[in-house]
Prior knowledge:
The chain has helices at residues 2-5, 33-37, 54-62, 84-94, 111-123, 128-139, 145-153, 157-162; strands at residues 16-19, 22-25, 43-46, 66-69, 102-105, 168-170, 178-180. The chain has 197 residues and is of the alpha/beta class. It is globular and about 40 Å long.
Amino acid sequence: MEAADDHVLVAPSNFSMVEDGIYRSGFPKPENFGFLSTLNLRSIIYLCPEPYPEENLKFLEANNIKLFQFGIEGKTDPPTPMPKDTVLDALRVLVDVRNHPILIHCKAGKHRTGCLVGCLRKVQSWCLSSVLEEYQKNAGVKWRQRDLNFIEAFDTASLRQCLLSIMYRYHGYGFKRKRLVHGEENVQTPKPQAAKV
């Protein structure tokens, strides 16, 4: 019976798929490494200032996973505001499909991770009520009004301007529907014209 337990895959706390190639969770522990291996991750976005544990770094190295660390404080007393520039930097990594499949995590996978996913949803042109509802659902009873305010006030215009070379646009859902956008695309379908006689 003990041998069978070795093959049980355990997802990190608060794990879920944001969409194809993008996942979110709480901090992965060694017992989650088997599960994470099945995702074929290329990258991890880590949103805490603390150093990444050695055991986790070894797992990343063994699986050729790149770590992007954005040290965002998670203090509640006194409350630490979300740093807009750091969130923008993390979004640049997140929307670059060359980094996918990618996992986003902080400690609990609720607040910092929720803010980043909320900002991604705004880039994807989700309606604000759906963005905020998704944040609250994942944060549970510990949702924070200041996080909702940050997501609501987040301006995607600066991100769109600086990411045109790597940002993907969605044409429906599904992995094959993502594509890289190079420069501003103004693809216009020519209007049919009557032949001149």
